[in-house]
Amino acid sequence: MTNTINTLWQTKVAARLHDPAEKALVLLRDPAGHENGTSRALTRLLGFHAIGTDTLDPDNDEALVRTVFKKGIPADMYRHVQRADWWAAAADRPQWPMEEITVSTKKGDERTLKVAPWAQVRWTQEPVLIHPLTKDQYDLGKHGGLSDTDFHDIKERNFSHLSSLITALHKQSPEVHDWRKTLLTLWRFGPELSEENDNGKLGELWKLLPADTRIPDHSIWDHLDLTSAFSGAFAADPNGEAALLTLAIGPVQSFIAAARKMEDLWAGSHLLARLSWEAMKPVCERLGPDAILFPRLRGVPQVDLWLRDECDLPAQFFESCDWQKGGTDANPLFAAALPNRFVAVVPASQAREIAEQVQTAVRGWLQALGQTVLTELLEEAGLTNDGNLHCHQQMREQLSGFPEVHWAAVPFSLIGIGNKERQTGLDTTQLSAAMQPFFGGDGDPGFLGTNAWKLLQKELQLDDAGKKSTFFAPNPGVLYPAVHELAERALAAAKTVRSFAQTEQKGWRCTLGGETEWLTTDAAQLKLPAGQRTDTLWTRIAAKRPAWAKKGEHLGALPAIKRLWPTLFADEVGKALDKDIGRFVVSTHTMALAHQLDQWLAHGGQCTPELSRRLERYRKQLDTAALPRKLMRHARNADAEVVKTAALLPALLDLSSDESISETEEAALMRSAVRQTLASVRENQNDDRLETYYSLLLMDGDRMGAWLSGGDDYAITYRESFHPQVQTGFDKHAQSQPQISQYGQQKRALSPNRHLAISGALNDFSLTVVRHVVENEHLGRLIYAGGDDVFAMLPVADLLSAMQRLRHAYSGHDPEHKGGRHAGLTLHQGFAILDGKLMRMMGSKATASCGAVIAHHQAPLAAVRRELHVAEQHAKNEGGRDAFSVTIVKRSGGALQLTAKWGEPLHALQDLRVFLQTDGVSRRAAYHTLQWLNGHELPQPEGDGAMLQTLLAYQLARQAQGKAKTQAEPLAQRLTALTLEQPTDKRIDWLRNFISVAEFLAREVRSNSGNASEAGE
C-alpha cells in the first residue's frame, strides 16, 4: 500500500513538472525548448531518474525510451502523465493545425508533426490575456509589456523559487523525501513567486501566465492542476481509469435563515462553509487538493491552515499570508468562502468509497462539534457534564443524518477509445446510452447532440497552400462537457431521493428553529411552557452568557451550535495563530449612528459637560460598542480616550432604553446629552436629531448555474478565445474553408478551466474585494461573503454607493474608472487590481442582482431579514435580473419599494438625492413636488413626455436657488426618460415612488417618524 501511495504522489509531482511555469515567456525564444529548462532540472533535483527501473524494448519503443531517459521518469508513470496532459489540453483548449515534417534519426528519415507557423505566438512581444468568460482582452503591452524580460533570468528565478521550496522540505525531514508534501507545496506555492525574487518585473502576472500562448484564457497553473488531477486518478486506479465525482451537502437556505441576530446569520453561512471544507478534506487528503476542480482551493485560508497544521508544511511558507496577520474577525479565516458542492476527478474504482468517506467524515465532525458545544454550555451553566444527561442523547439524535450528502460519479471509461496509443478514435455509444434516461427525446442527448460535438468528433483537415495539416484529433478530454453534464443530471436525480430516519419530538420546540426540542438536562422540563421555565440549562446560560442565549430563548442542537460557533471558531483561530482574536459585531444602532460618529471624530470628538458627567456615572454599566472598521481608521489620529468615548455613545443610548430607566427623567437627559454632543459639529447645531435607520444589503450573482454549466448564452466562441495574432491567421483560412469557419464560430464547450476561472474569480471577489468595498471604501460591516453571495450592513448614506461599487466589482469593470485607481481598487476589462494584486473577476457579461432594506435599528431582525429576501427576489424577478431593489420600512408604518435596472436609474436616484441635499435647494422640494403629483389628475405621459418634463423642471426649479436652479432641467429630463420606460398605466405612480425614495435617502437624519413632510420640519 505504501508503494502505491508513493507512486500516486510521485506521479502527481511529475505531472506538475511536465511544463514549466515560465513556458509562455520562453516559448520560441529559448533554443533549448521549454521542456529542457526548469522542468528537467527539477525532475533531476527530485531524483526521478533514480526511481525504479523500466524494462523497455528500444527497438519497439525508441521514442518512449528517449523521452523517459530524457525526463528521468519511469515509463508507467510517464504514460499516466502523458495521457493526463493530452486529456487536460483537449478539455481546456482547441487543438491546432499540425504540419507533417521530416526529421532525421538513426533509423533514417521519420515523419512527425509541428505547429503551423501562423499559429505560433511570441507572447512576450504581444502579451494579451483573454477573459475566458467574456472574450475581453487585457493587453499587458499597454501596461509596460514584457519584451524586456530575459528568458535566462526567468528560468533561473523559477528554478530558484521552486528549488528553495523543495530544499525547505528537505531540511524539515532530511532522512526521507515526502512526495505528498512536495506535491502540496508545489500546488500551493508554485504560483507564489516572491517579490524579493521577482525584482518587480512580473508581480501578480506570474499567477496568470497562460498555459498556451495561442489561447491565453487559462493559466499554466490551471493546466498543471488538471494534469495532476487526471494523472493521480490514473495512478490510483488499478485499471488506470478516472471518474468525475459531483457532491453536494445541504440544506442551505433553511440552515442559514434561522436567525435572531447578526451573529446567527454570519454563523449559519460560515458554519456551512466549514462543513463544506470538512466534506472536501477527505478528497484532499487522499488525492490532493488539485483533484477538486470546483471550487478552486488554492489560497483559501481554511485550506492553508490544514496544509500548515495537519499536513505539516513548513510554517515559514505561510508567513506572508493575510490570515496570519489579522487579530480580529477581519481575518480572512472568518469569511465564508466555500460553496456547498464540489466537482472532483477521482479513481473510477474508488468513487463510491470516497463519497461514503466524505459523508462519514462531515457528519462525524458535526457530531463532535455538538459534543463540544454541550461541554461549553454545561460548564458555563455550572452543571456536571454527565454523559447520561438527556441533552447528549438529544444532540446525537437531532444531528443524525445532517448534513444531507448527495453525490453522483460518472466514469470516463464510458468513452470508447479506438487508438489507445494516441487516445483517439472515440466511441460514445455507452456514454450516449447512459445519458439518454436523463435527457429523453430523440437523437443524441445533451452535449453529444450539439454542433460543437459534431465538429469536434472528427479530424478537421486544413489545406494551407497545398500542405495538408491535421487540425483536430479528439481524445477523451474533449468529452468533459458530456461527462460533467451526466454527473450533474445524476446528482439532481439523487437529490430527489431523500432517505432519512424520522425522529420523534414530543416536548416544547426550539424558540429559534421551531423544528426540534430544546436541549435540556432533564426530559421532564420539556413539558414546561415558556412562563414556567425557571431553572433550565438555558435560563442559566441567559443569566451568565447572554451572547449565547437571550432571556427566554431555549435552543435545539443546530441553533445551539450556530449560536456558539462564533466563540468556538474564534478560539480555534486564536490557538492556531497564537493570539487573542477579537470577535465583534457592529450593532444595528451603532451602524445607524456611524456617519454622525465619523463626523464627530473628524472634528476632534469634544464632549459636552453633560455627556461627560453621564459617561462617568454609567461607565461601569456600559459595554464598548464595536465601530465600523473605516471609522476606526479615521480615528487613528484622534485621542485614544475620544475613540473610546465614541464606542460608548451607542451603549449609553441603549442603556437609556433599558426597562428600568427608559421612562425616567434621567433617561431623557442621557439621550439629550448624546444628541447635543453629536449635533455640536453640524452646521445647524439646533438640529440634534439622531439617525435611527440603517441598511442591509444582499447581493447574489445571476444565473450561476448557467455560468457553471456553460450554455451557449454564457460561452465565447473558439475564435474569440484565440490570441489576436492567431485570430488573424485563422480568419484567412476560414474564408476559403467553410468547415474551419464553422468551427471558429462554434461556442466553446464546457471545460475544467471554466470551473477554475469561475471559482478563482469568486474566491478573490469574496475574500478580498468585497471586504475592501464594504469596510474600507464605506462605513459598512460585512456579515458574510461566500462566492457570489454578499450580505452586509451599512449606514443609509453609504448604501447606494456600496451597491453600485459591488456590482462593478463583481464584473471587474467600472466604466467611470477605466485604467485608473479609485480608493485603491481598479476595475477594468474583467480584472481587479488591489494593492498590486491582479485578480480576474467574473467579467463584463456577468450580472448580479441586489436587494436592500432600510429599517429602524429597533425593528425585529427576523422581519427585516424577510423583507431583505423579498427585495432580492424583486430584483431578480420583477427587475428581470441585473437589477436592484430597495425597500424602506418606516418606523411609523408603511413602506416604499423601488426596483430598477442598474445604470441610469441608480445614477438618477443618486443625483436626485444629491440635488435635494444641495445648498440652495429647499428641504421641502421633494415634498412640494409630490404634493403637485398627488394633487392633480395628471394624465399618464406619452410620446416624448414633453409636458411632464416641463412641469417637473418647473416644480424642481422653483424650490432651488443659484447654481442649484440650473440642475433642475437636466434632472427633469432624466426622470421623464425613466418614467417613459415604465408600463403606461404605472408611470405617474412610479415617478411618485422614485421621488419619495430619493427624498428619504436625502434626509440628513431619519428619526422615528417617517412621512415625507418630515423633510420640512
From TrEMBL:
The keyword Nucleotide-binding applies. It comes from the Bacteria. Signal peptide: none annotated. Gene3D superfamilies: 3.30.70.270, CRISPR-Cas system, Cmr2 subunit, D1 domain, cysteine cluster. Keywords: Antiviral defense, Nucleotide-binding. Residues 693-884 form the Cas10/Cmr2 second palm domain. InterPro entries: Cas10-Cmr2_palm2 (IPR054767), Cmr2_N (IPR038242), CRISPR-assoc_Cmr2_N (IPR024615), CRISPR-assoc_prot_Cmr2 (IPR013407), HEAT_type_2 (IPR021133), Rev_trsase/Diguanyl_cyclase (IPR043128). It holds the Pfam family Cas10-Cmr2_palm2. Residues 244-368 form the CRISPR-associated protein Cmr2 N-terminal domain. This is Type III-B CRISPR-associated protein Cas10/Cmr2.
